[in-house]
Amino acid sequence: MDEQLKEIIERARGQAGEIANRGGFEAFKASFVGPQGSFTALRKQLGTIPKEQRPEYGKRINEAKDQLEAVFAEVNERLEGMELAALIGPAVDPTLPSPDRPVGTVHPLTQILERIVGIFEKVGFTVASGPEVETEFFCFDALNTPPEHPARDLQDTYYMPDSTRFSNVSKHGEERYLLRTHTSSVQIRTMLKEKPPLRILSPGRTFRRDTADATHSANFHQIEGLYVDKGVKVTDLKAMLDHFARELLGKDAKVRFRPHFFPYTEPSFEVDFSAEHLGKVGKKWIEIMGCGMVDPAVFEAVGIDPEVYTGYAFGMGIERIAMIAYGVDDIRYFYQNDQRFLNQFA
Amino acid sequence: MLISLDWIKNYLPELRKSAEEIEEALTLIGFEVEGIERRGLVPLQHVVVGEVLEKAQHPNADRLSLCKVNVGTGTPAQIVCGARNFKVGDRVPVALPGAELPGGFVIKKTKLRDVDSEGMMCSARELGMGEDHSGLLILEQRPEIGTPVNEVFPEADTVFDVEVTPNRPDCLSHVGMARELAAFFGLERVSPVMRTAEASLSVSEGEALVDAVEIADAANCKYYSAYSIRGVKIAESPDWLKQRLETIGLRPINNVVDVTNFVLHEMGQPLHAFDAGKIRGRRIIVRAAREGEKITTLDEKARVLQPQHCVIADAERAMVIAGVMGSVDAEVDNSTTDVVLEAAWFHAPSIRKTSRGLILSTDSSYRFERGIDPTGVDVAARRAVDLILELAGGTLCKRVFHEGSCAIEPTVINVSPDFIRERCGFGPDDAGVKRCLEALELEVSETGSGRWQAKVPAFRQDLTRPIDLVEEFLRIHGTVKIPECAVENRAMLRSHAREYTFRREVTAYFRSRGFSEVYNYTLVSADSLKRPGDAEDPHPSLRLQNPISADGTHLRPSLIPGMVEVLRNNRSDGDASGCYFEWGRVYAEVGGQLVECIGLGFAVLDQSDRKSWLARQGVDFFTVKGMVADVLSLAGVTLPDAQYRLLNGCVYGQNGHFAVGGDLRKSPCRVELGMLDLKYTQRADINGRVYAASIAILPQILEKAPKAVRYAPFSHFPPSYKDLALVADAATSAAEVQRSLADAAKAVSGVDIQVERVRLFDVYQGKGLEDNQKSLAFSLTFRAQNETLTDARVNQAFETIQQTIEKRTPFRVRR
Q1: A259 vs B515: CB contact, 8 Å cut-off?
Q2: To the nearest whole angstrom, how far is the Cα of A114 from the nearest Cα of chain B?
Q3: Does domain B412-481 have CATH number 3.50.50.60?
Q4: Measured distance CA(B589)–CA(B727) in Å, rounded
Q5: What does the domain layout of chain B look like in residue ranges?
Q6: In sequence order, what DSSP letters do the residues of A213-264 get, joined into one string?
Q7: Which residues of chain B have pLDDT under 70?
Q8: Mind listing the pLDDT tens digit for each residue in B497-528?
Q9: Chain B interface includes A267 (CB < 8 A)
Q10: pLDDT score, position B653
Q11: What fold does the segment set A108-130+180-345 form as a domain?
Q12: Do B546 and A154 touch (CB under 8 A)?
């Protein structure tokens, strides 16, 4: 009896190391504790043992059972380890490169736009939007640009044929559709829709009928700002652009106002910036933008009382700012989309 | 516009500022200086014209030559020279010993590498005439040997190239610019002295070179005057006059014509001189041109006129395109003895239209179309008469024709110094404000209680409103004096346009997926929209009225061709990501009208065959479709699967692999997506498959308030799953099968059981099915709100669904 139990345990221990998978494990267990198993057979003999020897025999059987189960547990643990290892796979070489695409790039014009919006956001400006196909009223008439103004010529502005109709670009009267030459049209649409006080930015694509070269592009981008409130003064405009210059170019940036002429502002200025690190452009002052106090005629065109409200407006070319900020010397690079160019702004 | 400093000093005798100071002044009062050029020669002693007689190698220096130069003294001078651009026989400026060149360089007899040198042959820069130092200044016109060089070149002058904004026609002259500088520097301004007294002239008595002047086109000509000068002698102009004109880039013609040009640039009033002998019928008529009337202008171009053009005609023919250019038929030439001088005021828009229509812009038309000073017309005429009499002789006939009127009401602006200070946010006391306005020749009078009346001089027709005086004050007071102020920061007043925040989200989405943002042009060529060889324009309604080149004739309907262009441009870059996206407007025709849409495009070049140490899965149609759904969801738009259909025959889409989703007539967006036509991409030299999409979203959909969210209670009990496969005709869309199944599932849902989800997980064609059949397998999720479902309840519902399908749809349950 003892001999047989001993032999079973030893056999179990002997075979345990050879078991490589769950199927083998089940067969292995069955060969001992299954219905036909050798250990089951010994247990069944318990009934044939004389009554007085039974406790002792039972005790031996139980000891052997514990030992078998210990063997099974050991095998089980070993198999679980193998299974986990198979799931985990071999150790990686953490120095290998990822085969996946790295994060993408945001176009430099978008980045500059975001930077400019960010600077004005801080002082309460938010973005307004409007269509790129505009009408003469929103692009010119409402901006105090007389009908014979050269900017309205077929030579300088793209027009759609007279028969064109847009279902989602509203007209004021029977004026023609054109491709907007500036984003000031958004200011007009916003002033017609919303009531002052207003503090908006209008970034977006604009078109002039120019032949493309290093500084002219078939289309370009502008961002304009408009502030309308009671008691807005020239000093407010200057303070805002001083803030902008310092945020954009650093604390040493300076701003110069040169009187100029725009139909939609009075007084009007062109604005030059100067800053230490702009020196390499070769000039002390660099023209950055145009600005001025909103002309009373513009307020009248949109139904805002110029006796009550005053305001300022400013506008700049996004490409121009990007060229200055990044030192890009040809505007066409922004539209060639060369990956080596785009990656530089990642 | 070119402005000569020397000329301007005629009217500002006290002007003692340097060119740099004047440049800064002009800039700060609103006249951008686009260039400064120093012309002519400062007075130089001992610099003469010499001729190179001999040129030999310097015995001790490779780079120097040893020359003998005739400087007109009888004995040739021996000069060592380092320049190489000259040859024997050339005439050059020679600085002789004793000369002091600009910059203080004094010439002495000297030895250069042990050889005597008796002077220096000069470059343009050494004479202070520009920057050219590439070699000697060769005097091609071969002036006399020994002539002092100052006799060869005009006197020194500084010429400013000034940008004059369109609102300031009064500054398109030397007197005009002098007024501005006088105001800024606070200088006395001197006007040209008039010798021809107005009183000596008559409008009705005495003789004249013509019998009648008539304005038959009063709409285009407000005033016309004609002066007759008899017995002039046409000759070359004196040097001072020729030099004035040459300095500002004009070619002298003869004394009479030069005077008219001089007065134009002095006072800004264009004038015209006729040879009286060429005026037929002794009549001058200002009239509309006849349809098809021909004229050969002074630039020797034959031009055909239209009735909208105004001409100055005699009894027979047009002699001048009014205010623009004269004809060769009536010009003053060497045989002219009698001259009729025209001084007129033409309607600005008419001249502008004529000039643009004929593509003919002249100094005259430029000034008329911006608006001349009507009160200056007669003044300029008398100035020109003075100069003609002085330079060409002759006598002025007593009778002068004045037709029409150039009288204008003076503008008076009521303004207060407080208003000016309020709009500026700062400012000096009343006297300081007044000083600025008076410097600009406004007459300011006080009308009590802090109010002023400002009478505007006639040449400033741009000043009409109080706000205009704010700018004038600032210009003269100085924008540099605007004080530093703090930005008044107020609370946020409104939200960003949703379009802008949507764009930010989209950009972040694509960037995080490894896409590079690109910018393409909105205007595209007709060729990019059609197949090579196709004649027809597929998008005639998107065509511009006035494209500038064939590259950009149409508004773009899709962003896909641009994406292909980007892939093409980066095709040779093995490291390029092959993944690009663009944000920009696209245009579509819907029901006969155009719509402007927010456009979003992206493209992925399938690079699954690219060498990599670790294989990754490639892209396919459904990669793109998934991304489209992501982007649309950022816009709050859902495009149901059933709204997609294959789009065959698209220029750039691969048949069977390219689809369209949505319809702008009914849905807020339209999407084209899928594999691009392989031949199309191959024509762009792209290897491999390209998957791309172009999404058009109506901007107005973004302004819709987002749907309000209401929480719905959800079950806390476990779900139960059942799978089933439906056999359908192979041509049936998955969406149709799905919908039938979803309908059937919905029918069994009730209080005690719900079908939460019907998910397609397998598509099968092949063994076990007929050739024209396919099997779609779905997984159904059952759940009850308030209890754990029993198998019996689930089976019952599942059985009902299957029976509904079999009874009500053409599909068969595969058991």
Answers
A1: no
A2: 9
A3: no
A4: 40
A5: 2-30+162-185, 47-153, 198-404, 412-481, 498-702, 720-814
A6: -SS--SSEEEEEEEEEETT--HHHHHHHHHHHHHHHH-TT-EEEEEEEEETT
A7: 489-492
A8: 999 999 999 999 999 999 999 999 999 999 99
A9: yes
A10: 96
A11: BirA Bifunctional Protein; domain 2 (3.30.930)
A12: yes
